[in-house]
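Ticket opened by: R.M.
Priority: normal
Category: complex prediction / small molecule

The reporter submitted a protein together with phosphoric acid mono(formamide)ester and asked that the result be attached to this ticket for the collaborator who will pick it up next week. Submitted input follows.
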Amino acid sequence: MRTYTNVHDLGDLKAAVREALEVKANRYSYKSLGTDKTLLMVFFNSSLRTRLSTQKAGMNLGMNTMVLDINQGAWKLETERGVIMDGDKPEHILEAIPVMGAYCDVIGVRAFAQFEDKDFDYSETLLNQFIQYSGKPVFSMEAATGHPLQAFADLITIEEYKTKERPKVVLTWAPHPRALPQAVPNSFADFMNEADVEFVITHPEGYELPEQFVRGARVEYDQMKAFEGADFIYAKNWAAFQDPHYGKILSTDRSWTVSGRQMAVTNDARFMHCLPVRRNMIVTDEVIESPRSIVIQEAANREISAQVVIKRMLEANL
Ligand code: CP
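Result attached by the on-call engineer:
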């Protein structure tokens, strides 16, 4: 594996989940793979889970790990080509990336959507510059349009907790005070469309996700109807994708907050969220604290999804 940006990079998804469960059972058995190898994690944005779980995954594989926070202690980077650099950014990303590549063997990049230019975001400009110019295997630690390490961990968690062959999985929009990227719901849809599940997306009108990720999945605008008989509820906020509202908040309707009212019509569903979560905006205290909530187990599986991806990159580049 040379890049990891979407579900297709994993190849056979069932085999990837089997590998993940094997890694989870024997996570310290691959230490020789990473001996004298260095993992560099580059963050343009904040993180708790991704930072810790990916570093832990690298350490499980015997790697040295380095973290660079671009906005804390590194030079500010210019990302546009052709700019006269007479402003506050003393280094261009086109020098910075190959320099970073010179110090490591595998690179993880976190670079969220900026909501200033939809084409810039949906071209994955920053992530693709790392892929093009670093000379090293590159994986997304949440980029502008996707969060494939999260979605892989979500799928592993669903596999562990499902009680029927083909569970009903519902992705629901929920309100949030800030405009959030579509990366998590995009990748969740990307994975669920390839998994053996009945997949339903529910959101208020105007929050339609990009077709390249929805791929014909059922979209139900009535949240209660969508929740009926669900085995897994996956809550997430996202800002509008469709023009002319890209990156905007169109609704703060708190009736979409996941509560006991909606959970009552499910098949005693498991509750999932990628975290961090705003309680009583996205989900009530009661639901997230209930025994049906598996948000902590889901976060724990981030270590496993990252370990599978880095392991495959090390194996492919021995
Ligand atoms: N879910 C997730 O990616 O968490 P962090 O933003 O804390 O890394």
